């Protein structure tokens, strides 16, 4: 899990609508990166063995429709958690995610000559 190219950020109040090609389900997103999502509270009926999933991410007044591939599943009693890889990020997704990234410190701004 530490072989990530981009940092994952914890997220609150972001929802997901997801389809495996047979049904439509809703859940929530608990962390996000530029190329992946962790989905929580996904109904057990979702086929996590599907090659592609259609998802719509909703949060902060924006919606992003994209295709994703399941990478891992963690079953709970009444639901499951799902890690997905984003296959085709729509325009504006990278900027949206970058707003959640921690701001980098400007080391040159603290040097006094």
TrEMBL record:
Single annotated GO MF: cyclic-di-GMP binding
Superkingdom: Bacteria
InterPro entries: PilZ_domain
Official protein name in the record: PilZ domain-containing protein
Residue stretches making up the PilZ domain: 2-88
A Pfam family of this chain: PilZ
């Amino acid at each position: 899990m530490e072989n990530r190219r981009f940092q994952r950020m914890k997220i609150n109040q972001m929802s997901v609508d997801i389809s495996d090609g047979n049904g439509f389900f809703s859940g929530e997103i608990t962390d996000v990166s530029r190329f992946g999502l962790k989905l929580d509270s996904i109904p057990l009926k979702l086929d996590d063995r599907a090659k592609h999933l259609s998802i719509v991410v909703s949060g902060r007044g924006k919606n992003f429709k994209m295709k994703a591939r399941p990478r891992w599943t963690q079953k709970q009693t009444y639901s499951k958690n799902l890690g997905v890889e984003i296959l085709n990020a729509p325009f504006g997704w990278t900027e949206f995610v970058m707003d959640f990234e921690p701001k980098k410190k400007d080391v040159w701004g603290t040097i006094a000559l």
